[in-house]
Each structure stands twice: as C-alpha cells, then as structure tokens.
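Narrative progress, year one. The postdoctoral researcher (J.K.) led the effort to move from monomer predictions toward full complexes, under supervision of the PI. The following entry was the first complex the group processed end to end, covering 581 residues in total.
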Amino acid sequence: MFDEKRVRIITGHYGSGKTEFAVNYTFGLAAAGFKTAIVDLDIVNPYFRSRQLESQFEEKGIRVIASSIKGLSGDIPALSPEINTVFHDKSYQAVLDVGGDKVGATALGRYHESLDREPYDMLFVLNANRSMTHDLDGAIKYIRAIEAGSRQKVTALVNNTHLCGETTIEEIMKGQALCEKVSDALELPIKYIVVQRSLVPSLPQNLKGEVFPIDIYMKKPWEQES
Amino acid sequence: MAKELWKGNEAIAEAAIKAGCRYFFGYPITPQNEIPEYMSLRLPQEGGVFLQAESEVAAINMVYGGAGSGARVMTSSSSPGISLKAEGISYIAGAELPCVIVNIVRGGPGLGGIQPAQSDYYQATKGGGHGDYRLIVIAPSSVQEAVDLTQEAFDMADQYRIPVMIMGDGMIGQMMEPVEFKPVAKRVLPEKTWATTGTGGKRKPNVINSLFIDPQECENHNIKLFKKYDEITANETRVENYNVEGAEIVFVAYGTTARIVKNAINTLAKEGIKAGMIRPITLWPFPTAAVEAAADQASVKAFLTVEMSMGQMIDDVKIAANGKKPVHFYGRTGGMIPTPAAIVEHAKKVLGGAK
C-alpha cells in the first residue's frame, strides 16, 4: 500500500467517490510517516471537494494546496502557483485530486511538462454504479477521455464501486468484475479495492488488488453527529 | 432496474427525459450546471433539442414557445437566473402553459454565492413575477424523491396547465445518492386541444396569450385561474409527518434541511425529548392542514421552523398555526448549513422557554 510513485494522480468520473478515496489515501500516507501534500485540482465540482477538510489535513501535518482564491464558495477555476511545489520539492509525497470528467482533467494538462519529467502514477477510480462507467465500453471511453484531457496515462485501476450507505459486498464484487474486464482490455493492473472499514471482514479473499479500507470523511450535513 | 449512484442534477435531467421531455432551454449557472450539461449530451440521443440560449430571459421565452406547441419542455437555473426568468414565468402562468422549471437554490441576495440555500421560498411561492398567479412548487429532500417528483411534475403541469417548479437547495443538485428510476403512477391527462400545432385548415387558430384589454375579461381570467388553484390545493398538497404524534415540539422543515432536522429529532429522542416534524413536500400548495392539526394537538408546546434562510416559510407556518401555538425559527443563510447539534440546542432553548 502507498508504494506508488512520488506523485499520485487520482482521477475518475465525478461522483465515483474519487475524492473520498484521495482523502483516505492522503491521511494514510501521512499516518505511514511520509511528508504529505494534497493538491485539490478540482475546478469542476462546486461542492464535496477535498479542500473542505483543510483543517483536518493540517492537524495531521498535511499540506493542502487548492485554489489561489481563498474562500470555500468560489467557482472560479483558479489554479495556485503553489501547485508547482509538489513537482519541485521532491521531499513531498503528493496526491493530486483531479476533477471528474474530461473537462476536470484538463486542469492537469497544464502540468504536463512537469509530469513529463516526473515519474507518476495515475489511478483511475471506477464505480460500476455510475451510469457512464457501468460497463466495459463506457469505462474505456471515460478513461480515454480523461487521458486526452489530462495529457497523461492511467497506470492503474481502483475499484470503488459503492452505493453510499447502501453498499453491499455484492456491489463491490460487481465492480470488481467490471474492473477485471477493463484490466484485461487495457492491460492495467487493479491496484486497490476500496471498502468501507466495516465491510472488510465480509470481503472474499484473494481478489486482484489490495483491499483499501476507508472511513467516510466527505459527510453530508445530516450524517454529522448531533 | 437496480440502483445506481446519481448526482442530483443529472438525475433530475434523466428523470425529465424519462417523463417525455424532449426540449430544454437554459443558460449555465452554478450549482445546477450538470442539468444543461447532461441534457446537451442526452437530448440529441433521444431526438430532442438542447439549446443554450443567450440569456435566461431568452430561455424562459423559448419554454413559452415550446410549451405553447404542446411539447414537454423544461428549463433549469439557480437563484439569480430564476430572477431573470421571473417575467417569463408570469407570462407562462398567465397563458396557462404547462412546463417544468428547476431552481437549484444558492445563497443570495444578488449574486450571493454558490453554496446551498432555501432563501428563494418567497420568490417561488409568493410570486417572483407579477400578478395573481401560482406555481406548483415541489421541494424534494433526496435525489430519489427528486427523480420521482420530476417525472410527476410533467403530468401535474399537463393536467392543470400550470408551470411546476422543482425547488432544491444546492445540496439536492450536487450530492450523490443511490437512485432507482421507476415509472410514476399514470394520470388521465386532457388532450392539448389548445396547443398551437397548426390548424390544417380544419379549425380556427389557437391563440396563446396573457393579454386582456377588457378589465372584466382579465378579472374573469383570474377567477378561473384561482378555481384551478383551489382544485390543485385540494388534490396535490403533499406532506410527510414524522413522529408528530405525542410530540412536544414540532419542527417544520423542507428539502435537505428536513434530513438534518430528522437527525436532530433522533438525538432529542435519546435524551427523552419528544420531537416531531412536518415536512412540506409541496411548498405551494402549502400543507396548511397538517400544521393546523399539530397546532390543535394537546402535546404540542411549540413549532420550530428550520430553514436555510433568514426565515421565509415561517410565515406560512404562522398563518396555519393561527396563534394557537408559538412558532419559533432557527436558520442559517448565505450558503451556510445548520448542523444537527445547533438544531438540538435551539429546540431545547425553545422548550425551556415554553415551560
């Protein structure tokens, strides 16, 4: 786990749970003792962005790099010059959370020169319960579109098939089957199977990919404790 | 069909397509942009037309035209864009044209911000545009409900020849939830004999207009509209009652705020405080009878209206409670969301004062 190259790019369909995975991954990296930075490159979604957890990240010593325009409420697609830090300061282990879809991935295209010089891993988060990526054809089209927009190549798949609070093992296994098809078709490894911590013991053994237990950070307002 | 994960905005768009909507006219604004984006992809696949107008004003008048020809038509926007559409909405209401208008509400006034709000309640239920008119205003509290009610909204619009507004706070548009697309109960719908579909030389031309030069005719038209509004009030008022029986305090909340309140109610129950909620699903017609019944209930000491606004729906709650029980308010606005903990605290304060 966490043995990806220094710069990790997390992509996927918006609504795939990409940000939840990126957030969990970032906390995991920091907990494993790495000097960690998360770059919120999401200029597409106005809500549910990793930057809203800024104070929780900073508590754990994680550097948060988001828009250069302060204030959570902006929908101005402004990228901070600070983003370059993660390419120049190689002491950082970096997670780049990229906005879903081709348009969102375009923000990453701006950094292609840095990425040409820097070995990276680009993880494609796949949720078989999203209508545009629910079959082989859709998933491949989506991966190709994101690659074209970002000018980078996906290096591994992440099965993040879920139904929010209604997720079952069957859902995860349905996604695993789809990931295996995509994996065969595109010759990409399945790196992680994302599973809410409470479901981990019920998961079958010997699946392709490492089990990545997650906690839910991107909560809806009514999911908070009162 | 199995459940899938849908973002609220795209789910509303797909629901409209499933309901037979083939024409969409709009203009982008956050936080509802996924609706036009999705429509631009899907409508051509269904043989329909997506058109990004040059402005909201143009878009709503295209809706007037499309609806006038008898087609199922939709537009969507967010708060400032709905203000721009207000004139056209009044014309559509005046001309009795069926259509669906989606407002994914953001903080205001003015440009405000892009985070969720419910501060367009007055605009949606009390006017916005000019004249004596009503819209059916539907406020879903989950993506599933948004999908079901969007489909039904097209039937309601056709049945009564009235514009129907789907009003969701920004959270409804932006969040992801499991959804199942199910067909809605069939209604017997009148034929659109009034539509401007061409006479074929066989009948007199249909004229769609909201202009009345004779004031008596204009008054007659208003009286006719209000007979229809009475019928809608009798037939279409929707409300969810949650734990109202035996409750000491009754919350009134709609949309996603109602879900936060539900969380607070469950916490209060653990502490031995009986709280319930009236959740208007239609904001107009407002579920007055449900509030009246709770006001007459002996256990109820007070109402607490919770909104993502400075307090708008509270007026309708007060009218319905009619002074029988005190009506309190708690809200956050401008894109801020009430927390369950703050609602619990406020309820205790109200009950402390009520004793």
